[in-house]
Amino acid sequence: MNEELAESYSLIQDAARGGRYWIAPRQLPTGTWAEYRTDVATTIEDAGGWFRITAAYDQINNLNWTVDHRRRTSGDTAGHQLGFPVEPGDQTREVWRSVRAAIETLEELLGVPPPASRVSGPARQAAGIERSFWPYGDGADFDAGQKDADDAHVRDQDEVRPERRATPIPDKSGEQDR
Predict the structure, then answer these.
(1) pTM for the full model?
(2) What is the phi-psi region of residue 122: left when phi exceeds 0, alpha when psi lies from -120 to 50, beta otherwise?
(3) Whether residue 162 sits in one domain with residue 83
(4) Which domain holds residue 160?
(5) Nearest C-alpha neighbor of 85 from the set 157, 151, 20
C-alpha cells in the first residue's frame, strides 16, 4: 500500500506542477487498498492512523472520479491527448496532504527510517513543496486575484521585452503612412 500511495503522491505532484492530469486510461492506484484493507485494519491499533489511511483513499477515489468525469463529458480533444487541466476546485493540494499523512502513518507502522522514507523531512520541506506546486492555494483558499495579477505582470514584462516572445510581432507602423 505504501508504494501505491507513493505513486498517487507523485502523480498528484506532477499534475500540480504541469497543470494537467495524467492521460487515460491511467488513474491513481487503489487496487492494493481494495485487496488488503481488511488485513491492514486488523494491524493498525491507532484509530487516528486508520482514519488517515482511509481518508487518503477516499480522497484518491474522489479525485479519480473527478478526472474520469472530465474525460467522459468533455469534448476537449487537447484534454484527451495531453490530460485535462487541474482546476482550483479539484482540491489536489488536500488530496496530496492526505496521501502524505497516510504514507507517514504507514511508514511509522512499518518502522521505515527517515533515509528510506518517501516523505520524511522537516515540516518546512513539505510547506516548501506545497508553495511551489500550489502558489495560489487550492480550493477554498485559491487566490484568483493574485494569480491574475501575476499573469498580468508576466504579460507586461513580455511587452517591455519583446525579445522574450517566441514569435516576433511584425512592425506595421510604416504601413499606415502609405
Answers:
(1) 0.77
(2) beta
(3) no
(4) 141-166
(5) 20
State how far the Cα of 143 lies from the Cα of 147, in Å rounded to an integer: 6
> Phi and psi for 85 in degrees, rounded to 5?
-65, 145
* Total domains present in the chain: 2
pLDDT in tens, 105-116: 999 888 888 778
DSSP letter string, 54-112: HHHHHHHHHHHHHHHHHHHH---HHHHHH-PBPPGGG-HHHHHHHHHHHHHHHHHHHT-
Same domain, 102 and 150: no
CA-to-CA distance for 109 and 130, rounded, in angstroms?
25
pLDDT in tens, 24-41: 999 999 999 999 999 988
